[in-house]
Specification:
TRAFAC_Dynamin-like_GTPase, single chain, Rossmann fold, Dynamin_N
Length: 317
């Protein structure tokens, strides 16, 4: 009878075992069970939790997966995970600087094989114009150009709204230069500045010249990113414009490796004596602002006239 009671109690205990509270064994640093991912404390630093390699690998894998899923959207909208705030342009570009009516716009039209820029004897343009190849002809104003992060000119917004409204984009199809861009700059003019003014700060000089924005700073910005810089002069103003000399000193300094000085409109010279006088005047003016014993090479050129044979010449702008 006693044996039956003992067996009945055991069967009752077994039948109610699922209702019992399970007690896990206490965690200990000596436990080597692979199912325990977290250890209570590090043996070297009792206040710092120690994470097992398996959970570290799991967290890193999850973070990498999340990063890979977010980056395509971030790249499209240039969001807070932007890796490079100063995005460069997709195409290399040639930057043209020079006096007004020195032939910059005519040179662009000749290279591209299309009439993209307006050329004339008087100053015809006061904007920085980005001429880029594309599938069709499109014109955009400054806010659209600088507001597009994919174009690479977003940082120009730091120069203020006046510059933004003096910048524009021209996309042209079927040009002779499908692999690079050309950027035209406002023609530099005579200004009431003296040689003492050249030593002033950039803001002081621009207050005198009154362009409404830091012209020297903008030229420097383009020059640092350009692949080739062409500095144009013409026989009428061979280096005598004060603003041109100021730009050469303050904006194009240190750019000798990609700066080419061009004396354009060589076809205007009727005699070799006239050419020698203009060339000598340009060298003399450059020698006063270039801190070198030897002057850089000066290239002379002129543009052919359209439709009048290869031997015909054109005066430029």
């Amino acid at each position: 009878m006693l044996c039956r009671k003992i067996m009945f109690k055991r069967s009752l205990t077994a039948s109610t075992s699922p209702m019992r509270k399970l007690r896990l064994p206490p965690l200990s640093s000596s436990s080597s069970s692979p199912s325990l991912l977290l250890r209570p404390f590090s043996s070297s630093n009792p206040l710092q939790p120690s994470i097992s390699p398996s959970i570290q690998s799991s967290v890193l894998s999850t973070c990498s997966s999340l990063h890979a899923s977010v980056m395509p959207l971030n790249t499209k909208i240039r969001g807070p995970l932007e890796k490079n705030s100063d995005k460069t342009t997709d195409l290399p570009f040639v930057f043209l600087v020079g006096n007004h009516s020195s032939g910059k716009s005519s040179f662009i039209n000749h290279v591209l094989g299309r009439d993209v820029q307006t050329a004339g004897v008087a100053p015809t343009d006061d904007c920085f114009t980005v001429v880029s190849p594309g599938p069709k002809d499109i014109d955009q104003d400054g806010p659209a150009l600088i507001g597009d992060p994919d174009m690479g000119f977003s940082n120009l917004r730091h120069f203020g709204p006046s510059l933004i409204h003096h910048t524009r984009l021209k996309i042209r199809e079927n040009t002779n230069a499908p692999s690079f861009m050309m950027i035209d700059s406002p023609g530099m003019i005579d200004s009431p500045v003296t040689r003492e003014t050249l030593g002033l700060s950039s803001s002081s000089r621009n207050n005198v010249m009154d362009r409404g924005y830091d012209f020297e700073g903008v030229v420097r910005w383009f020059a640092e990113r350009a692949d080739v810089i062409l500095l144009f002069f013409d026989p009428d103003k061979p280096g005598t414009t004060g603003e041109t000399l100021s730009i050469l000193v303050n904006s194009l300094g240190g750019m000798d490796h990609k700066l080419y000085i061009v004396l354009n409109k060589a076809d205007q010279f009727k005699k070799i004596h006239d050419f020698a006088r203009a060339y000598g005047s340009l060298c003399w003016n450059l020698s006063k602002v270039i801190p070198r014993k030897d002057l850089p090479r000066i290239y002379t050129m002129c543009l052919p006239v359209k439709g009048e044979g290869e031997g015909s010449l054109k005066e430029g702008e």
